[in-house]
Model the fold of this input.
Amino acid sequence: MAVSKFTWLRGLGYRGGGPMLAWLLHRLGGLAMIIFVGMHIFAGFLMQQFGSDFGTTLNIFYESTIFQIILYFFVYFHAINGLRIILNIWPKLLEYQRELIWLQWLIILPLYGLSVFLSIQNLLTGG
Amino acid sequence: MRARTVPQPGWSFEYLMWIFTRISGLSLLFMGFIGLVSALLLGARTQMDLPTLVRWTFFQNPNHVVNSNIADVTIGWSNAYWQIIQMLMIFFGVSHGFNGLRVILEDFIGHTILQPLTRGGIFLIWLFTMMVSIYVILAS
Done:
């Protein structure tokens, strides 16, 4: 079966396990960060040069807690998963990459939980 | 999505970008570390709240956010050294990002006429973003 109408559904049903999930989240997170950093640069430019309302709107949008909570996950995952990918240069570690992926989840989840906690605390107490 | 053809051994474009992705990723983490430690050394521990500290960790520019109160620390950071650090950060971050976008898009495009067009388009967007952000840094 080459390309069918159900590629997306088939892709989601494919049992790739941890490495496939890591690959998928790495790509999705990378795309999310391109959008975020791009917005950030243009909003900064617009605010600095023109003091424009559009720049302020973009700022308010990406400083919102929901946006940040989603972004934190992608950033932490991309950073820690990227370190694991660099470690794969050493072939011996490639054999243990499933275990490394479990280890990286163990690092990411507490960091992410702490960030979400601080972010929500900041929202509730008003910074 | 198609299988990618394996490039020839040697210093091909793909191999250079493979190396660059790793070097720039490590550099971004390292620069985040430099920003955090420097902010704390320059007095952020008593003068900044946590969100402001995090923003200054990753980008040492007073223009890029609404909510940060950075009145007292700005003086210590607005010099050539930190502007060069910011430019390096922008170079590594933007290049890493757009190269990643290129890799993802070329997975879907394959070796068609669209590939050079995509590369050209991404190069132009990369150039534009670099110019805009360096302008922001130098005009701060």
